[in-house]
Structures are given as C-alpha cells and as structure tokens.
# Entry
Amino acid sequence: MMKNKNTLCTLLAAAVMLSALSGCSAIREKKKSELNIAIGASPATMDPQLVSDTYSGRMTSLFTCTLYMYDENNATVPGLAESMEWSEDNLTATYHLKEGIKWSDGSPITADDFVYAFKHLADPQTASSAVYLITSCCIIQNAVEVSKGEAPVSELGVSAVDHQTFQVKLEVPCPYLNSLFTMPDFAPRNRAFCENVGSDNYATSADTILSSGAFIPDLYEPLAAQIHMKKNPYYIFADDSDLPGVNIQIVSDSQQAMMCFETGVFDIVSVNGSVYELAEGDACLHDYPTVSTDFIKINCKTNQYLGNKNIRMALSKVIDRKSLADDVLRTGYDPLYAMSPPGYFTEDDGTDFYGDGSRYLEYAGFDENKAAELWKQGLDEIGTSSVNVKLTYYSGNSALAEAIEAQAEKALPGCDIELDPVTQKEYLKMSSSGDGFDLLIAGWAADYGDPTSFLNLFLSGSGKNIYSNDEFDGLLDKANESEIINTPGERNKILHQAEDLLMSEAAVIPLFSVEDSVLVREGVTGFTETPTSAYSVKKLDKEVR
Amino acid sequence: MGKYLLKKILISIMTIFVILLIMFLLLQFMPGSPFNDDKLSPEQIEMMRQKYGLDQPVIIRFFRYVANMFKGDLGVSYSISANTPITTLIARRFPVTMEIGLVSLCIGTFAGVVLGLLSAFFRSRVMNVIYSVLTLIGIAVPSYLLAMFLSYCLGFRANLLPMLYDVRDPFTTSIMPVAALSFMVMAIIGQFTKAEAMDVMNSDYVLLARCQGLKNSTIMVKYILRNSLIPVITMVGNLLVGLLTGSLVIEQMFSIPGIGTLLTQAISSNDYNVVLGLCFLYSGMYITVRLVLDILYCFADPRVRLGGTKS
# Structure
C-alpha cells in the first residue's frame, strides 16, 4: 500500500514537471517566430492621449496609427489620412481619411474618432501632460482656453465634416502640422468603446485597448514587466508584414538585457550607457539619430559676467566637443555646433537644414587661442581679472561637467567654474523655470520636424529660459506668416536668420546631438526608430531561422 | 493576557499612523513634484495639482488620505502609471514578491536547518569546511552579486536557465532569483541552527538519552531537531519581512514585476500615493510580524503574560 502511494506520488510529480516543461517549450517556440524587444522602463501609460515619455511613445506606436507617420527615411507620409489640404490663410487643415480603415474589432475608423481624441487631449478633466502639443507646439483654435477650463470642450477647433473628413482649425499657421500629428497623442479614439469601458479605464489593461495600429495588446497591465501584442489583421498596412506578434520585456538592468541578446532571448535591445563598450564593433549595432540635443543654458540675469557676449562666446569656443564625445561620453553623442541638430530638418531642396556643421564654427567651434582672446576682451570690457561661474548639472552628468570645467579653467585665465550637481528632480525644476543657475547642462527632445521645435525655446517669455531678444522674436513670428509659408525657401531663410542671431550672440552653448544605439538581430527587417524615438512598425518583420 | 494583547494591537495601529504622518511630511520636502516635465507650463502643472488635490494643505490631505484608507482607497498613481489605483498596482505585484520571498524562505530555511544540523552532528573537517564556506558566502556576499554570478554562469555561459522572469513561465524563470535570495537565508538559519543544536546536544537530557542507549537517529529527530528548531521559528518572520523589502535589486535584475521595483520607480518620480501605499504595506507587514511574534512569546514565556498584571 505504502509502495503504491509512493509510486503514485512520483508519477504525479513527474506529470507536473513534464507539463510545466512542455508549456515552457511552447512559449519558447512562439517567441522564436515573434519579435522580442527589451526596453529599459515600463510605459507610464498606454492611453495615447496621455503619452509624454519615450517608453509610452514606443509602446503606443505599436498599436496606434496616426493621420501621418514616418517612413523608413524619416519623411512624413500619409498614415490613416489619404491626403490633406490647407486653406488659403493656412489656418484650416482638412484631412481626408483612407477608405476601409478599421479598428481591431472590425468597426470603421471615422473622422469623429479623431474629434473625440483631440477633445479628450484638450479636456482639463483628462489633465494630460501632453496638452502642450495643441496649446504651444501648434495652437488649435480655443485649445488654450479649453485646456484651462475657461471654455467648454465643444469649442475646440476640430470637427468631422463627414465620416471621412476631419478638420482642424488653428490660431497660428503651423507648416509642420503633419509631422506633429505623427505623435501617438493624435491617434484616433473610439468613442463607443471608451464610453463602454469608462474613459478613465481606457488602456488600463489589454482588454480595454482598441487598436488602430499594427498590433493588438493581449498581455498588459499597468507597470507590467511584460507586454505581448498580436498582429492586428485590420491594420491598414497589415499586408506589409507577416510578423505574428511582439514580446516586450522591461529590463532595467542593461547588462542583463545585453546578455539576453547574446543568448538569443531578444531581437532588439538598446545599449546606451555603460554597456555600449561591450557591443562596440558588433555587426548588429545600429545608431539611430534622435531629435535630442544637449546644450548649456546661459542665465545672464543671475550672473553679471555672463551678460557679456565675449565671455559667453569664449566659454562656447573653449569646449572641445569632439574630445568630450569620444573620450568622456564615448557613446551616442556627436558634436553639435548649432541649436537645430542634423539629420531631421530639411531645406526645400531636401538638403539638411544643419548643413555640414560649419555654419557656426566661428561662434562655437573649438579654438583655445580665440577663446582666450575673447575672454580677455570680455574681462577688459567688464573691468575685472577673474570671473566665477556656477555650472549646474544633473548629477549623472558629472564626468561631462568636470571635463568642461577642466577645459575652461585651463585655457581661460581667471576663469573659476564652480560645479553644482543637482538631483534629476531639481534639474527638471530649474530647466522648466529657467531659474536658479548661471550655466545649466540641459537637454531637449523635439516633438515635430521643424527647427522651431528648438528655436521656440528662446522666445521671450517661453518660460524655459532667460533669453529675450525682440529681433529674434520678430523673426520667429514672421516665419509663421502665411505669405512666408507659401513662398518656397523663404521660411527656412528666416529660420536660419533667427538661428544666426542666437549663435552670433552666443545665447546658448550647443554641445551634442544624441543618438540611440540599438542592437538589432540579423534577420529582423524594417526596424527603424523615428526621430522622436518611437518605433516605426509598418514594415517590421522577422526571418525565422 | 487580553489587556496585554489589546495594548500591543493599539500600539501597532498608532505606530502605523505615525509612520504614515512622517512619510506624508517627508514627501513634502522632496524636491520637485510628481509632474516633473520641463515641457509643462506652470499653469498646466497647477491644473494637474488641482486635479489630484495636491493644492490642498498637507494636514487636510493627510486626514483625507486616512479617511479614504479606511474605505480601502489608497488613491491613484500620478505619474508612473497615470490614474491607476494604488490598490490595483499593489494587488498585482505583491503576490509575485510574496511568492518568490516565501519560496526563497522555505528553501533557505530547509537548507539552513539541514546544513546546521549536519555540521553540528558530523564534526569532521570536511563538513566544517563545507559549512564555513557556505555560511561565509551566504552572509558576506550580497544577494545581488550572487544573482549576477548565477546569471552569468547558468544563464549566459551555460544557457541552462532563463535570465529573466516570465509571468507565463514562473516556475523555471524563478529558479535563479530564488537561489540568490535563499542562499542568505540558508547561511543565517544554518549558523543559528548549528549553535542551537550544539547547545541542545550538550544538554543533560540528550546525555541521558544517550546513556539510555537510544539510537542516534532517534536522538537527532526527537530531541535535538525539535528543541533546536523552536528558536529558529522566531527568526523566520523577520527574515520573511527582510526578503520582501530587501529583494529590490534582485527584482530589477531579473525583471520581476514585484513591489520592490514599484517603490524605486515611485520614489524617483515623486509619485506620493504609490510611496505612501507601499510604506503602509511594508510597515503593516513588519508590525504584524512583530505582533505575531509578541503573541507567540506570550504563549511561550509565562513571564510576558504576567507582565504588568501584578505589581
């Protein structure tokens, strides 16, 4: 009897182990055919209208499709929209939607879904941190008043002319609107579905998400460590890819993510930071330019010496950006000599707005002798022999700050740089208020494909800085005039004039343009990162080996 | 006895409230706000503060928080998972942390007891070396270093075990984190068991049992094991709380969706409600364990029971 009992127990245990192992092998087989991606942090939200961080942007880009989208060359091309047209005064944009576009439940995507989405974004009840996209990046009619609760949501300047025609009215012309509308915050929102699940509950679990994009989330919970999405057969570009699904795992330990890539667990892994060296030289390593820059903000109000143009320019020219990028930061940074980074903004003839980078070398290019000369002139003008300046930075940037301090103090006699490391929260507070620092190592990521995405930071009263120049403000205002927008080449000419002014005044010290380094396994095709660091998924595919 | 227990329970409840109040006040001194985004204008930040009631004075917010807490509402997340109820976040993550913590505790305790008893019973040189090496590593090497070592050897080099936790395959993907966590438990319990077992073995009643000619195995199980395990049990509660609160780095390394990672994310983002909810949970757990231990002492030691009744 006892023997039988033991045998039974052994058999049961073996059965449990076998079923567990067979379950594991089924998961492994499924993972092989799907795309496996590691990302560094959980998305803060999966609700497209609340997206304001990179990781949420990446995740929502997998299951949303917008009016316009980026192609593999980072050009804006129609997504759900068939075409768009501007009114004569450039204040009304009319979008014609494609025929047969559908939600993942098979119901049609209509113009009303866009109206509902835009109104949800503007609604003060939503309290979306992405509302600045319609109150500042572009100004939709009444968006400022609606977002403050001073006007009803129904007053927002968006409307559905018919099922397939969506109209947006603006207060100021916005020539880069299509580029802005690639953001997931402008993805459609299904009114009936949201009302059914409750608007606050939307996208809080896999079954409260309706997809308009390439995939449908079927495993997701807030702050989950894993997200799984399956192919959306109703996606407008579903025929472009055979990929059955994507597995996303949140791996905050970059070394662990890297080891997992090496053992074949992941197909796509970001390798920025300390693990870059391990991946250097790997054939799978790709650098994707982002529209992010690092620069030094200058506060002339707190430090009298920084009010002198020669002092500012000397500080800009004394920094050897190349050696900092190569020897200190080592990964993902390229020297930058203008405010608008290369590779994203184009002239009307298709060439890069940034050019070859030589445009502002006179003001920002590394030249110790010239820097010392300017420094001496500046000191003479002020009537002092030494200058003390506080350099504030997020403590994670200490290597960079110390190197800048060393370069400046070595080449500029009488220069005393006081290092002031702060926490990330303090840094963000200073960066947004423009207060509490002399020099601040700051960063900025663009939201749309236009140089104004960076130049607007220097508008008087933008709240982000302490620079104020009427001529600069006038040029940016002029760049948005209808007549200028409609004259080919004219707008970029004015934007160049504005940037010339900024750089010749040494109002800012540009440092680096930022790249995202990613390991992409051989056999994965169609993977690109958009300039705003979201995933471009239209042609994403994987060859199963 | 009843009065003693009532006093202990009341002190525990008061302690939790004091902790919450201190946390509430401390969070106000943290730099920044939950809406740390340099793209937001001051008006937008103010609107968001109003939406979540953060524009109210601290004391009003504290009493409102406590009143809602009694209704089982710990508020919603402001930033790390916008608008998700804290109870939902904790309810989904706590079982994962608990499961891994409990399994590590059980395996570590079992291994520690076996190690402690064997080294107490078989005092050979080889056994001593094994015991010393294992307990030294378990106590001196932090669990995250051990986790890195296991991950590199068994996951990366040998490709035997998965390096990341998978909710669809929790069994095999938990092996490495459990091994890393249970090693420390094994070392502590092993040392404690050995010391207790040696004491018991040198006691008069074991000597008497030996003189009576009882078998070694009988003495081991009925006398030494049973008597040396009683003090060990009191350690297990504290170790469990330590495992639940201290497995943070392990959770991050193996990508385990537990409450440790939730706490670090919440602190770095100033997500007050999540921090408060987790502090409530952690302090509640710790105080409950202490209370249970006090009650157990109360049964075990008559002096505690009588304390304060006669003066």
Summary: Chain B touches chain A through 54 residues (CB under 8 Å). The mean pLDDT of chain B is 85. Residues 86-121 of chain B form the longest helix (36 residues). The domain at 86-268 of chain B is CATH 1.10.3720.10 (MetI-like fold).
